[in-house]
UniProtKB/TrEMBL annotation:
Gene Ontology molecular function: ATP binding; ATP hydrolysis activity
Keywords recorded for this protein, A-Z: ATP-binding, Nucleotide-binding
Protein name (Swiss-Prot/TrEMBL): Sugar ABC transporter ATP-binding protein
Record SUPFAM superfamilies: P-loop containing nucleoside triphosphate hydrolases
Location of the region described as Disordered in the Swiss-Prot/TrEMBL record: 250-274
Domain (ABC transporter): residue spans on this chain: 7-244
Taxonomic source organism: Micromonospora wenchangensis
Annotated InterPro entries: AAA+_ATPase, ABC_carbohydrate_import_ATPase, ABC_transporter-like_ATP-bd, P-loop_NTPase
Keyword Nucleotide-binding: yes
Length: 274
């Protein structure tokens, strides 16, 4: 893993009128790792993702991608950098097949007609590269797929375009045990293939099963970002619900990176994310 995060956010603020939703948020996502973004409802997770994906402009702060400052003013800017988001609703069309969904809006053409053989080959190669074996035919309509298979197609669609960072919004919500295990294996495989993955989840079992780091948001502030092996389930719950756990999170005096004391979010990321 590179010491330089693929995506680094510094001092991100976002308000909607008088309501400040994000306050001085820092986040780092490394290539080859799964970073779990956790927080209670209303903590600011969705707003932060929409700032990263270019749907909302940040009011203040810096975005660095692969170590260089970038500006993300639209979803097209994010896609150009290699940032793809798989939202909870998946944005798939039930009346189209898998290939048609994966290339929706980005179809390949041969002259005036669609280049179906190329699209089918690219879709097959992408699914094979992710070791997906649960789909019987690329020409199945999405309406015939299970929840886990739909999630698989949505993720494959996101990585088809040489993406570098994939953000997954509650990918296992409403899935059964077996389908959840399949999706989590795919999430882990994305990171093992060298992508940076940001996983949004309320399920702590899923978080601890696949993540390398956990970033906790509390009332719009990033209160901690730590290695998964350095924190317990109960500590994460405390950070989500109270903004602090022991020497992690919000405290009452200025913080010095590494000592875990003081006010403001405790930064336990190696090198410090500021």
């Amino acid at each position: 893993m590179s010491a330089t995060p693929l995506l680094e956010l510094r001092g991100i603020d976002k308000s909607f009128g008088p309501v400040q939703v994000l306050r001085d948020v820092a986040l780092a996502a490394h290539a080859g790792e799964v970073t779990a973004l956790v927080g209670d409802n209303g903590a600011g997770k969705s707003t932060l993702v929409k700032c990263i994906s270019g749907i909302y402009p940040a009011d203040a702060g810096e975005f660095l991608f692969d170590g260089r400052p970038v500006t993300i003013n639209s979803p097209r800017d994010a896609a150009t950098l290699g940032i793809e988001v798989v939202y909870q609703d998946l944005a798939l069309c039930d009346n189209l097949d898998i290939v048609q969904n994966m290339f929706l809006g980005r179809e390949k053409h041969s002259g005036l007609v669609l280049d179906e053989p190329t699209m089918e080959q690219m879709a097959a190669e992408t699914l094979a590269g992710l070791s997906v074996r649960t789909v019987k035919s690329l020409r199945q309509h999405v309406s015939s797929l299970s929840g886990g298979q739909r999630q698989t197609v949505a993720i494959a669609k996101a990585v088809l375009w040489n993406s570098k960072l994939v953000i997954l919004d509650e990918p296992t919500a409403a899935l059964g045990v077996a389908q959840t295990a399949q999706v989590l294996e795919l999430v882990r495989r994305l990171a093992d293939n060298g992508l940076a993955v940001v996983l949004i989840s309320h399920n702590m079992n899923d978080v601890f099963a696949v993540s390398d780091r956990i970033a906790a948001l509390y009332l719009g502030q990033m209160v901690a970002q730590v290695k998964t092996t350095d924190i317990t389930h109960s500590q994460v719950v405390e950070l989500i619900t109270a903004g602090r756990s022991g020497n992690l999170g919000l405290t009452g005096e200025p913080v010095t990176a590494g000592n875990g004391t003081g006010a403001g979010p405790a930064d336990t990321t190696p090198g410090g994310v500021r």
